[in-house]
Design goal:
Layout (H helix, E strand, L loop, with lengths): L7 E2 L3 H25 L3 H27 L4 E2 L1 H12 L6 H13 L14 H10 L1 E2 L14 H8 L1 H19 L3 H24 L20 H6 L6 H6 L15 H11 L3 E2 L20
Length: 290
């Protein structure tokens, strides 16, 4: 435990300025833009493609593939998950995975990077905007064996800016709507994808049922699953973090597990990790609203 330390109070001005500005431009600018300029099919397709690609790059890639290694894939999918993951501006996968593994190891303690006991604002965004974290990369040595993954970490700006800003702007220019691409495919999309991830750190540890492990704050909640590509079944995930599914039942809304399964059917993913039914027992007697 000596290799870890609690976050220290430190205002990170880049995050303090970047996230509110991007959110305001995206949320307020989108309806104004649509009112005066309208919305074309090409703009809608570009926005939806980037929203889906980058959000899945976090839930399928950063989270389930890199952090928990619940399946294996080829070099092309590996690259695409790094590329579109960088486009979310959530830092390198080595940093993201290290902090996420620390979160699982020290859930609900002072060493939890976004400890939900400190309130909604801290666990949602305060831990990023107003705290400095000493990241212990010793817990991601397995990921550092990949030269491509290390390259994304060491040259992160050269990954994030081209993938997250330059490419969508070039595509927006190509379809004749660069302003719409900036407001929606860049600003609004980033605001949505960031908050999708943030809600798992905050609300999914505050609202939900605890049918698998009543000793952690993480809860299962279908509403958060709808907003987070299936990540809202968080109590199950904390109990069985090495399962490629978060929504373990077939009808649970979990686009991330369906995408991984689709990759496996196409021969692009293999060795999908799955909790045996004998262990994934939902103890209704222990349901607790948190």
């Amino acid at each position: 435990m000596s290799n870890y330390s609690p976050p220290k109070r430190h205002t990170r001005w880049m995050a303090v300025i970047f996230m509110p500005v991007i959110t305001l431009i995206g949320v307020l600018g989108t309806p104004v833009y649509i009112y005066y300029r309208g919305l074309t099919v090409s703009e809608t397709c570009l926005f939806l493609f980037y929203l889906i690609a980058t959000s899945l790059a976090i839930t399928v890639g950063y989270h389930r593939y890199f952090s928990h290694k619940v399946f294996k894939t080829n070099k092309i999918i590996h690259f695409l998950l790094l590329f579109f993951g960088a486009a979310t501006f959530q830092k390198s996968v080595l940093r993201w995975a290290s902090q996420h593994r620390q979160h699982h190891q020290f859930t609900d303690t002072d060493l939890d990077p976004h400890d939900s006991r400190r309130g909604f604002f801290f666990s949602h965004v305060g831990w990023i905007m107003f705290y400095k974290h000493d990241v212990n990369f010793e817990n991601v040595k397995d990921l550092a064996k990949s030269k491509l993954t290390v390259h994304q970490h060491e040259y992160y700006d050269w990954w994030s800016v081209p993938s997250g800003l330059i490419l969508p702007m070039l595509l927006g220019w190509w379809i004749g709507h660069p302003l719409g691409a900036f407001i929606m495919t860049f600003c609004l999309r980033i605001a949505l994808v960031l908050n999708m991830a943030f809600f798992i750190n905050s609300s999914a540890h505050m609202v939900g049922t605890k049918g698998f492990d009543a000793n952690v704050s993480a809860g299962d909640n279908w509403f958060w699953a709808l907003l987070t590509n299936g990540e809202g079944y968080h109590n199950f995930h904390h109990k069985f973090p090495n399962d490629y599914r978060n929504g373990h039942l077939w009808y649970h809304w979990d686009p991330s597990k369906w995408f991984i399964y689709m990759l496996s059917r196409l021969g692009l993913a293999r060795e999908l990790q799955r909790t045996p039914k004998s262990l994934a027992v939902y103890e209704k007697a222990t349901l607790v609203n948190v």
